[in-house]
Each structure stands twice: as structure tokens, then as C-alpha cells.
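Supplementary Note 2. Why include the ligand at all?

Several targets in our set were suspected to adopt different conformations when bound, so apo predictions alone were not considered sufficient. For every target with a known small-molecule partner we therefore ran a joint prediction. The input for fe (ii) ion is given below.
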Amino acid sequence: MRAVMDAVEREIAAAVAGRPLDADLIVLSLRYLRDFPEWFHHPREEALFALAIRKDPSREAALAPVMAEHDAQPASNERLLDAFEALAEDGGQPPDDTLTELRRYIEDQRRHMQRENEEIFPVLLAVLDEADWTFEALDIADPLHGTRDPGAFRPLLDRIAVRR
Ligand SMILES: [Fe+2]
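The joint prediction is reproduced in C-alpha cell form.
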């Protein structure tokens, strides 16, 4: 996931420097950033969050902002995807406000992941028992790394040549 965000930021930097941006790569990246969390991360994270809140309702305040971010992410992804699908089709450079929104979206994703690692994971570790960490809950491997078949993400993987 970080390799994808790095690749998007390289494209933003290229566009800012006046070089042509690879709109296809941005489209593949945005689809990945939409689908990977929706298919793998969020259902498992949210099952763990719900379990943690059931066990200790006082934790809800700590978990609520991240859950709100999960709800908000699809809308900005969809706006950006529409814009870059059109650019991939028609060519040309994105307007400045679209680039700014893309940069903000990537920054938000990074902040979200950091918050999960630093604030949310410790809460889950404190509240949940060993038995709560089922294999299913832990199976959140990134399809662009390790042994998971990248499936629909293969073209993106080829594109950014993530080392496996
Ligand atoms: Fe998340």
C-alpha cells in the first residue's frame, strides 16, 4: 500500500514540475486504494472494533474517529477516480485543485494508517483476548506483497514493480 501511495506522490511531483502525469497509473492506484481496504481491511477492522466496544464501551470514543474516516474515504476516492478516469481517456494535465485533492487524499490515507498503528492497535491489544484474534481477523495481507495472488491488482503491481 505504501508503494502505491509513493507512486501516486511521484506522479503528483511530476505534474507539479510540469511533466506529464501517468493518469492510468493514478486510476489503477485509486481503484486499489478503494478496493483493497473495502475487501480486506475494513470488514475485519470493523469486526474487531465492534467486539472491542462490546467488551469495553468506554473505548468507543477512541475508535469512533477511525470508523468515521472509513465511512468518508469512499466519497473522495470516487470524486478523484472520476476525474482521473476522464484524464486517462482524454489526456491533458489535471487542474491544480484536482492535484491538491489527490495530494490531500494520500496524506489522509497515511495519517489514517498511522493513527491505526499508533492509537487503535494498542486499544485492540488492551481490550481483546487471544481468542478474539482469529485467523480470519489477522488475514489482512496486502495483495501487492507476500504470497497473496494479486488478482485484479496485477496490472498495478506490474506497473509499480513492487518487489515481492
Ligand atoms: Fe482503516
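The mean pLDDT is 87. Residues 2-160 form one domain. Comparable summaries for the other entries are listed in the accompanying table.
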